[in-house]
From TrEMBL, chain A:
<dbReference type="GO" id="GO:1902977">
    <property type="term" value="P:mitotic DNA replication preinitiation complex assembly"/>
</dbReference>
<dbReference type="InterPro" id="IPR000719">
    <property type="entry name" value="Prot_kinase_dom"/>
</dbReference>
<dbReference type="GO" id="GO:0000082">
    <property type="term" value="P:G1/S transition of mitotic cell cycle"/>
</dbReference>
<dbReference type="GO" id="GO:0001100">
    <property type="term" value="P:negative regulation of exit from mitosis"/>
</dbReference>
<dbReference type="GO" id="GO:0005524">
    <property type="term" value="F:ATP binding"/>
</dbReference>
<dbReference type="GO" id="GO:0004674">
    <property type="term" value="F:protein serine/threonine kinase activity"/>
</dbReference>
<dbReference type="GO" id="GO:0042802">
    <property type="term" value="F:identical protein binding"/>
</dbReference>
<dbReference type="GO" id="GO:0000785">
    <property type="term" value="C:chromatin"/>
</dbReference>
<dbReference type="GO" id="GO:0031431">
    <property type="term" value="C:Dbf4-dependent protein kinase complex"/>
</dbReference>
TrEMBL record, chain B:
<dbReference type="InterPro" id="IPR051590">
    <property type="entry name" value="Replication_Regulatory_Kinase"/>
</dbReference>
<dbReference type="InterPro" id="IPR006572">
    <property type="entry name" value="Znf_DBF"/>
</dbReference>
<feature type="compositionally biased region" description="Low complexity">
    <location>
        <begin position="471"/>
        <end position="490"/>
    </location>
</feature>
<dbReference type="GO" id="GO:0043539">
    <property type="term" value="F:protein serine/threonine kinase activator activity"/>
</dbReference>
<dbReference type="GO" id="GO:0001100">
    <property type="term" value="P:negative regulation of exit from mitosis"/>
</dbReference>
<dbReference type="GO" id="GO:0033314">
    <property type="term" value="P:mitotic DNA replication checkpoint signaling"/>
</dbReference>
<dbReference type="GO" id="GO:0008270">
    <property type="term" value="F:zinc ion binding"/>
</dbReference>
<feature type="domain" description="DBF4-type">
    <location>
        <begin position="533"/>
        <end position="582"/>
    </location>
</feature>
<protein>
    <recommendedName>
        <fullName>DBF4-type domain-containing protein</fullName>
    </recommendedName>
</protein>
Amino acid sequence: MSHEDVPREIKDEMEQLYEDVEGLRDEYVLLDKIGEGTFSSVYKAEDIKGKVCQRYSSHFWTPGSRYVALKKIYVTSSPQRIYNELNLLYMLTGCTRVAPLCDATRVRDQVIAVLPYYPHEEFRNFYRDLPIKGIKMYLWEMLQALSFVHSKGIMHRDIKPTNFLYNPEIGRGVLVDFGLAEMQPDYDRNEVEEDSLASIRDWRSHEQFCPCIVRDTNKQNASSPMVTIQNGKVVHLNNVNGVDLSKGYPKNETRRIKRANRAGTRGFRAPEVLMKCGSQTTKIDIWSVGVILLSLLSRRFPLFQSMDDTDSLLELCTIFGWKKIRKCAALHGLGFEVSGLRHITENGFPNALKEFIYKLLDKECTVGTFPDYSVAFETYEYLSQELYDRRSIEPKLPGSSNAETTITTEGPQAYELKKYQEEIWSDHYWCFQVLEQCLEFDPQKRSSASELLQSAFFNELNEADIYTDVETTDEDQMSEEDQAVDDDLLLIPG
Amino acid sequence: MTTRSPLKETDANLRQPRLHLNNEDESSAATNKKRALERLETQQQQQRKKPKAERARSIEGAVQVGKSTALKNIEQKVTPSELLEWQNNWKKIMRRESRIYFDTTDESDCSKFIKNRMDKRRDLLKKGFLSLGAQITQFFDSSVTIVITRRSVENISALSDSDILSRAKKNYMKIWGYEKATRFLKNLDVDLDFLEKSKTTSLPEPTLSNLLQNEKLYGPADRDPRTRRDDIHYFKFAHVYMYDLWQTWAPIIVLEWKPPDLADPKKIPYPVLKMGTFGRCPFIGDGACDETSYKRVVKRCNRDKANKKYALRLRLLYQHHAEPSIDSQELMIIPHTCLDSEQCYENWQKTLAAETDNNEAAEAGSKCIWKEPVPATALSLRKPLVSGAANVLTRQETEDFPDDLCNSKKQSRVTQELKASGVHQSNDVATSFGNGLGPTKASVTNRNIKNLSRLVVDRKLGTKAPTAVNTNKITPATTTTTSTVEVHGTGSHEASPVVPDNNTAEKEAEEDSRQKKRKTETATPAPVARRDNAKNSGYCENCRVKYDQLEQHIVSDKHQSFAQNDLNFEMIDSLIDKLKFQF
């Protein structure tokens, strides 16, 4: 493959990098610039000696590939930030679904990190066409990655399609960009619980504290006001300062503005992030997984398009209804009032997510924007059956009553199709369950990555027991056609 | 005790016994109405100790009582009417002008157990006072009228001048111990036992009936916590409000719209489900794009044809197993009953064929070329997004927005990378992002323009978190294939893909279009110029300065002294050493 067409500016830039980082030339050949962010630029490069590729061969999707991604971290980034990211990457080496830090170098303030190069497909090129089992594989890979990351106590904080590189041809995905990731602090709820009501009052003024962590699962602890919050009976707390602030706000606000880590991408932020919960956990990543799954099932991307956190919450309101948001707010010690807004109802869609997805697909099915070969029809038919035709449990072939249909209702072909549909239907059933588990508002009730991996949705993968070994040699599993495809041409279909 | 506490906690203070007392001593009651509580108190005190000689102020300031009169009244009893009057007086005072401050200082030799118990009592007292409508302040200031302390109130003069209690005394505030406060509440018929038991539901919800009842009980008093106050803005119109129930923090969301703002159903200022089609964000909808129009149907049909091979390959790969594999070439397709793009196209063909008098349209249709005149509305949308004053980018998202589907770009599997590029051809921010499905053609321009137009309108709420994320006014374009731009957000993080992202051109087949793209980039000088202004400015986290020119900044003495100092990079170096060691 030739990189001669690389424009002048990029060539200059790469030349500059060679000069800035002496010794770089001996190890890597810069080929092209492949990405740019706030804190870094990424170049595709070749590992001359091949030592990185050899050492981390299990991570490389294409056997024998010598391509690596060189991440040039901008000199204006603080060493703390750089160290945080590199150290997390280093800690996470050992899972083939997380991009490992293969090599790094520093010359004065210039830091370069070397990661494997992954020939992936862009999400927006396959989200409309990925079949349900493809969605399963995508999710499996993503949850495996997260399960590993979370097991190390790390929150990724920015789970979204662009940070999960997936190659549908080989069914492999890798989690990248830990620039926002952080260790989940140890929220010691026992310490808080031992204290009396009075000191919870004091705890409230800690930014790291959120009442959501001191909820008691057994309701015996009725003296704790937190249980009151959990039950939704929260009004008595409004009066703490002798002023009722549930219907208005002080004109002259003297209270501090609560800050919380809200890093991440709007549209993928969990409700607790939007509500500035001070005790965020790895569950925030699971919510983001749910948003991606919602995108895949409804064949819409992006699914949320909010300008800010407020809009994000209102978007959730339109789907789930304000009652659910209010209940969630109460978990975090917040009150929530919506009044006079058209289209925002108390309960949102009657069947919440399923109904929402159905309505989205229905719109496209009515206007005719899916191609005739679309896999979205499967989900659509499944939902119309489940939501509106509950009498039959068995999958029904649409049009099977229609004499004109090309599919005969008898014979081995029909049997195969029926079998196929049953399989797809059951996949859908479990997939929607996973979706609901991901998009659970209460972070404590939201399933963890490892719990989700135990879902019946992933039965066939759990039984196959593949890819679960962290350092398995994946080259063996590459199918023949994958090997035939050149590294750079891998993604062209056919 | 220097300050006398006239109200002792005894059964005699309760209503029924008092009635009894009254019957016994009816004659003296009338003349000594106002001293009722004094007498009540002293009656009980007598049994234990002698009345206090010193007495600067009377019971709770309701009436000024001299030393001598108090002594004279010792034997007198309290009548119900006197008590009622006293109660009414105090209830009024509580509602109208009492500001109560709870002293936070403990006795020095206070065990944790006792502290906890006192804390519980304090909370109970707070509830009691709140139920009377008194105001409890978090901070001590000169407006406080009553200070309630758990310390001994006997030796206030011995405390330092800066102590809350001595300051309170100097300002003639009442200083009550917990004992006294409890007695006081009991005499005002506040059922503390009940409050304690029903901790969790101590205050009723402010429903209308509650409010009415309160009004009946207290009258329309200013200090009722639920009545309107001048210093509070109450929502009048449609609003969204998310606030801290404990009032520790400022509200998280405060939004209110005047009716005119919501009058136009097409311009609702909050997210509304528009559903939309063709993979678009349901909150954006199709906007000006009519997917049923002939033009769009043809485009979609072509796009779907181009994409079919890939889509069917995915179907085959994932037909029977989650692990991609192709067992057979036989495709399982469940027949559907929906309208699809091919049917749409055929329907149009039929319609056009029927219109025999419109030869041109029929011809255009058969060639899949759209020849209808461009509607005026579509033309008006075809201008790049203008970054006006309202377009303030305050937070950089790590998400890269795909293009609008409605712009005229041709997409095929091969030229996929182009999808990330191009000018938004809508001046509506909300509709200017797409999902990559849009057909792509030569109107592709610099991806920077897209980034520049990715402006986020900040509502400028007073409640915005002052995080670094929000400090950037305009954060410049961040992704470009051509420039040496370095872009700097302070607290946010832009995607820094490890592997080819949107602008990767890994396929040789793409090279052509890529060249084209780069050419077009240079052919659009206006946005490039704008980008140049922004591209070199940013924030250096190490020097903690904003700079206008990156090149100038990084050679500056300050930055260089940082860069040259290995100590600053010790952590990173040790990590790199660990990595090098493995080879």
